[in-house]
Amino acid sequence: MKQKSVAVVGAAETTNMGKIPNQSVLGLHADAALNAMKDAGLTAKDIDGVATAGESPTEIAHYLGITPTYVDGTSVGGCSFMLHVRHAAAAINEGLCNTVLITHAESGRSRVGSRGFGRDPASQMGQFEVPFGVTSPPTMFTIPVLRYMKEVGVTEEDLAMVAVIQREWAAKNPRASYRDPITVDDVLNSDMIAWPFRKLMCCLVTDGGGALILTSAERAKDFPQKPVYILGTGESVETPMVSQMEDFTTSKAFRVSGKKAFDEAGIKHADVDHLMIYDAFAHLPLYGLEDLGFVKRGEAAAFIRERNTAIGGKLPLNTNGGGLSYMHSGMYGMYALQESIRQMRGIAPAQVPNAKISIAHGVGGMFGASGTIVFSNEKP
After folding, report:
1. What whole-number distance in Å separates Cα of residue 88 and Cα of residue 96?
2. How much is the pLDDT for 77?
3. 3-state class (DSSP) for residue 316
4. Which of 283, 281, 289, 256 is nearest to 359 (CA)?
5. pLDDT of residue 4
6. How far apart, in whole angstroms, are the C-alpha atoms of residue 120 and residue 311?
7. Nearest Cα to 277, choosing from 240, 244, 320?
8. Where are the alpha helices (DSSP H) in the chain?
9. pTM of the entire predicted model
10. CA nearest 124: which of 252, 244, 254, 237?
11. Which residues pair with residue 184 across a beta bridge?
12. Which helix (H) or strand (E) holds 202?
């Protein structure tokens, strides 16, 4: 991708967040989309590309009255929206479309119009993991994290510290689901879900969504909001079965996706002012920091413990509160992208001073997929 050739010109989340019992999944998609269009000063007739995951892009386009020339229904889990950004940028550069709407919405808590959680018994996971009790995210992510803890020396207290610091960020965010301070002891005394995960180490279950609008950087200056340029992108997948990871202590998809994005952006780690790492569970920021190359293997827990990622730290991380305290309706990637964009626009509740480069890094499934987007607010 040509550097800074595509920009985000519209970004918004659903009007309400958290518990929304009076809106269906499709209604939440429309709410987020209309809010993003309003943010960009556009209407449905100005959109010629549609991308979404969870719902069919055909459903979204029809419901909103859009007749697209570009459609993307890529669905690889929570990082799908990072991949949508990457694909949309490529499509705009190739002239397949001019203006792409990416939507996300889930009724994760209220389950209004939501699809079931059933595992296909004919799938690889259905055949080779489900029969042995590996059925839900807490029972899947425990497999790599226990090996990681043993080999690297990470403790339960280290995992708890991730949740504690992210709650500190959430306290600055009026839209965060949970804002009250917590301590390491609070985390360790919360209910056991699946060893080593306590309740406060696990993501929230909420309702909500968000939407983005992308167009060429040349057109971006004509929109009401400050453009956020896409500097680099990456994506990869590894395995649909967490038990078949090449190495439980590192994600191949993270490494490949992150390196691709860094190389394309032409940046160094020291250039990054702000970082979002998908945190469905408390161990994911540790993997992300190491696999993206911000710290060496085994150093992430100490990096966080020393408050490098906290308020006032040298690498602000998950500044919206993350999936542990802000929002997690099921596929969290959209919320990470939204916070990166707020930071680049300079309007985040916990704004990082003078931030010029932000990275949003996502996971799909249980380390099955990954997407990485490098954003910049500097003009091309």
Report:
1. 9
2. 95
3. coil
4. 289
5. 64
6. 43
7. 320
8. 25-40, 57-64, 80-94, 124-128, 137-152, 156-170, 184-188, 217-220, 252-265, 284-291, 300-305, 322-325, 333-345
9. 0.97
10. 244
11. none
12. none
What confidence tens digit (pLDDT) does each residue in 270-314 have?
999 999 999 999 999 999 999 999 999 999 999 999 999 999 999
DSSP per position, 140-192: HHHHHHHHHHHHH---HHHHHHHHHHHHHHHTT-TT-S--S---HHHHHTSPE
Predicted confidence at residue 125, as pLDDT, reads 84
373 neighbors 90 (Cβ within 8 angstroms): no
Q: Are 252 and 246 in contact (CB under 8 A)?
A: yes
Nearest residue to 175 (alpha-carbon basis) of 337, 15, 40, 10? 15
Q: Select from 5, 31, 209 the least CA-distant residue to 88.
A: 5
Q: For 81-103, what is the HEC assignment?
A: HHHHHHHHHHHHHHCCCCEEEEE
User: What domains sit in the chain, N to C, each tagged with a CATH number?
Assistant: 6-114+204-376 (3.40.47.10)
Tokens 């890094």 locate to 361
Q: What length does the chain have?
A: 380
